[in-house]
Design goal:
The protein has about 180 residues and is of the alpha/beta class. It contains 4 helices and 5 strands; from the N terminus they run αααββββαβ.
């Protein structure tokens, strides 16, 4: 609207429909920013180091190369925006921030490892009559991943693959909660 005023256009009205059409016409989309762009640049890598990983990975088959990524999931969280009638009072409620952390892992061929889930409760009530979980579950005070939990999970996965006579590569990001694990 300010731009139209500066251009001396007095009969301009930017409706939602006009804005949607304009975005489609110029291929503009609304996205949420996430991740860390350029968290590690080529300048940060020591000379010669950029060829190490491809050399290591070339010794393994695709079914032996796994990538793991961690995510946080909030549940029972109220939305921070909502549609409402203009004349009605809109009041928010108490923000309940229940959360769990998950670690998903799959190999280059799409085979998934059982999900690793970290919750706040040691034995949640919803697990009361459950005999087998389709995931690895552990508890932590804030439902966050820490080095001890990750190390425990990695050693368990390593033990399972050793039983099958397989060696794998497990790629994880460089989070402080992801320590270097020796003696695997």
């Amino acid at each position: 609207m300010k731009f139209a005023e500066r251009m001396n256009v007095t009969n301009f009205y930017a409706s939602d429909g006009w804005l949607d059409g304009w975005k489609k016409r110029y291929n503009i989309s609304f996205k949420t920013v996430s991740g860390e762009a350029n968290a590690c640049t080529r300048k940060m890598v020591a000379p010669g180091e950029e060829t190490k990983l491809p050399t290591i990975l070339s010794k393994y088959k695709l079914n032996q190369v796994y990538n793991s990524d961690e995510f946080g999931m909030f549940y029972r969280l109220q939305p921070n925006k909502s549609l409402h009638f203009k004349n009605e009072k809109f009041v928010g409620g108490k923000h309940i921030k229940l959360r769990f952390t998950g670690l998903a892992s799959a190999n280059a061929l799409g085979k998934k490892l059982p999900m690793f889930v970290i919750g706040k409760a040691k034995s949640p009530r919803c697990f009361k009559n459950v005999k087998h979980l389709p995931c690895h579950y552990r508890s932590q005070k804030k439902s966050w991943m820490d080095g001890t939990l990750l190390q425990e999970w990695v050693r368990e996965i390593d033990w399972q693959f050793k039983k099958e006579g397989l060696k794998i590569v497990l790629l994880v990001d460089n989070c402080p909660a992801h320590p270097i694990i020796d003696n695997l």
